[in-house]
Amino acid sequence: MRPTMKTKDLLLQAYEFESGDHCSGLLTGLHSLWRQQLLCDVTLVASGESFQAHRVVLASCSPYFRAMFTNEMKEQHQDKIELNGVSAIGVGHLIHYAYTSKLTIDLCNVQDILDAANHLQVVPVVAACSHYLRAQLDIDNCLDLLTIAETYSLPDLCQYLYCYMGQNLGRLSCLPQYQRLSAEQLKRLLKQNYPIECLEAEVLQAVLSWIVFDLNTRQQHAEAILSCIRYRYISKAEFQGIRQGTVFREICRRWSKVFSLVHSSLMKSWSRCQHAPIVDRHGLINPRGFDKAIVNIGGFQTAKGITNNLSYRHIGSDKWRHLTSIPHIDQCDFGAAVVDNLLYVIGGCFNQSLQEHVHPFGFCYNPQRNKWITTAPMLQERCRFYLGNVDKKLYAIGGAGEQDSFRVEHNCECYDIKTNSWYVVAPMPTNMMQQAGAVVGRNIYVCGGLDVNDFVSSMLSCYNTVTDTWTQKPDMLVPRADHCMVAYGGRLYVAGGWYEDAMTGNRIILDGVDCYNVHTQQWTTVTRMPTPRYQASMVVVNGVLYVIGGFTLGPSGRQATNKVEAYSLKRNTWESDSNFPTELWEHLSCVLYIPLCRADNYY
After folding, report:
1. pTM value?
2. pLDDT for position 276
3. Using CA atoms in the order 560, 562, 566, 567, what is the torsion angle rounded to 10 degrees?
């Protein structure tokens, strides 16, 4: 007789079971049935070759088969189905994938597999083929891969290939396969914002060589393609070089209109610069495909603690994106400067075994190639200092050292980018740390900070890089430490920071934005920040001051903020801006030109 249990006892002893290997076991079982040709209920025929399978397996992997077997289609009741337009090789690999989740892709089968996967809507296999093709990319096959990507409508791969072709246009235009580019492909390459790593004059020459290669056929597309040239980036001397070249002479001999098309476009572009062909490439070989961006460099973030991450946001965009990471143990209080759109991050300190270590090492980031290189270390390790760029030389001013935080052996030193070496320059009148600095012309201005007695200073000092001398300028209106300073239009703008009240010893967080006119040598207060803060960062872009992050005062004392507030120097108004994703402090900010076409945008 079967024993019985009360319902309450059954509930107490019940438990939920889930097998960890059920999915793999199910797949193994289906694969075994398929290999033994058991319970197969459909035969697929491709290129005359037959493949037996289970409808339910095909439908689970392919929306194409799911629709075929579940809707009122004639194939729903057929035992044998002809698959037209796909190869037996492709279908065979897809059926093997359906039963094993595995696929071997190589150069011999990738197009067959891609063709079948695209036709049968097996999306993971399409993506796998796309990534495989991307991994095979080189200068010799990029046009073949582009044809495949456009044939099978692979937008991410197309984007990647156009970026690659732009970055290698100089080399590509010298190869025979360059002439296989269609007019639409060349227009897309030039019209959209893909970075191009050669001079715009060379881009014009490449276009002219493409036109003259088959002038009778390509002449009808010439005007539209020539309109894609960014003539404002071509100087008079560069144009004269093009005019004297054999390609330009040949095309002018056979089609005289081309000269007027190019020349009129150049004149229109130059006229916007008051008839002077001033070519500002922002330190880039070619600015096309780049846009100005605010870059946040490292610091402390509430979500991550100390971080080496760099984030960027294009002007006009409200989205912050990850850019790169400094190739060093997580650090803070370094110096940063931009030279010819290269970002230098020098020095700083890091924690190890609960000890703070200051280091002298430097790194240089190229946003065009998304690469870091190391630079020669400073003569003296330092942190909490100012790093400024004058005439493509970097000047490290003041700061704290390893052994004695207020006695840096080499108070100031200079880095020569050309020779990758440092040398000592004239020391500051008083060594400072946690100061702010900015460059006007060939002068470096440094203000505020903490002196050797831990006193918050109001001094403004000026270093002349030509004479290697320091002079004192009128003091700031209030003492400041952990503040920000930027230069714009011959003026210095100082914001935020703190000082200690002489009576109470309490820390006062400053909200004033003061301006120093380097010509009249006078200070004025121009505005008050909506959010007083210190250990923030500030950059100026197109006449707008952006103040980012930092510490402010909250109900329970100091608290970090992610606020970004923008002050228009022209309109004298504050506006809220796109906040940083997390609270941050002790970071730096700069302005760089970042490619609009980056891997984080489409892969």
Report:
1. 0.84
2. 45
3. -10
> If you ran DSSP here, which 8-state letter would residue 427 be given?
P
φ, ψ for residue 163, nearest 5 deg: -60, -45
Cα angle 270-273-275, degrees, rounded to a multiple of 5: 55
Contact status, residue 592 vs residue 338, Cβ threshold 8 Å: yes
Count CB atoms within 10 A of the CB of residue 7: 7
Architecture of domain 170-271: Alpha Horseshoe (1.25)
Residue 228 is predicted with a pLDDT of 94
Cα(257)–Cα(251) distance, rounded to whole angstroms? 9
**CB contact at 8 A, 26 and 64:** no
| Backbone angles phi and psi of 446, in degrees to 5 | -130, 135
CA nearest to 156, candidates 184, 180, 178, 126: 126
Chain segment 547-588, per-residue pLDDT in tens: 999 999 877 778 999 999 999 999 999 988 889 999 999 999
Strand 507-509 versus strand 498-500 pairing type = antiparallel
Give CA 144 to chain center in angstroms.
28
Of the two residues 533 and 14, the one the predictor is more confident about is 533
CATH number for the region 290-602 comes to 2.120.10.80
Q: Which residue has the tokens 């993971």?
A: 124
CB 514 within 8 A of CB 477: yes
The domain ranges of the chain are 23-136, 170-271, 290-602
